[in-house]
């Protein structure tokens, strides 16, 4: 996936906000990238533009051999359904469905066959075995988040986008989710792009991109928690 000079401006005239000012980045297959930066630096906007959930003002986003910015709304919806996965802060679980039904929902809507054993692998790795018959209101925030992660991983998306996937979790549940994202990258060559405020979460990634005021201002490969802390302190002044 390659983003080239992505500009995103909200509004126009005097009230225009430049959320992204020409951001370029390459996300290799099987690479885990964390995106960090101060509040309002454009992290969520960048993730949404990469994932085709928001249109860009100018620039391009290419996934595989498809330029998202040239697709119709339907084409974009199909690409998202067939090749991308999402885990967002608001879990978007359907309240009337059980955890298992929620986990299977995306695959079902996309008419995707789930390989035998993969459902069990995902459910066991995320510790959801005992919760499959429960509805979202009967689950803790951490369990709901894990259901959302399981749902996103079940279709084995080429690229998985995660916005603060550990934001609502205690450190143990957060570590489980991160280790599962890591496994998706290492064993299944999925590409993961994750926005996070948490240096511990960022240190799970292969590299960290730092945004400030709508631009990438720094990059850290093989990040350690301490190194991420230090860069963030520098950015936040
Ligand atoms: N729909 C919108 N309309 C107008 N301005 C927006 C919109 N969404 C975001 N912005 C602005 O764009 C800038 C970047 O926002 P964005 O949410 O991408 O930042 P962020 O780094 O994800 O912040 P946070 O860490 O606080 O979630 C901010 O100035 C924000 O106010």
From TrEMBL:
InterPro entries: AAA+_ATPase, ABC_transporter-like_ATP-bd, ABC_transporter-like_CS, ABC_transpr_LolD-like, MacB-like_ATP-bd, P-loop_NTPase. GO terms for cellular component: membrane protein complex; plasma membrane. CDD domains: ABC_MJ0796_LolCDE_FtsE. Residues 1-237 form the ABC transporter domain. One of its GO terms (molecular function) is ATP binding. SMART domains: AAA (SM00382). Keywords: ATP-binding, Nucleotide-binding, Transport. It holds the Pfam family ABC_tran. This is Peptide ABC transporter ATP-binding protein. The lineage of its organism: Bacteria, Bacillati, Actinomycetota, Actinomycetes, Streptosporangiales.
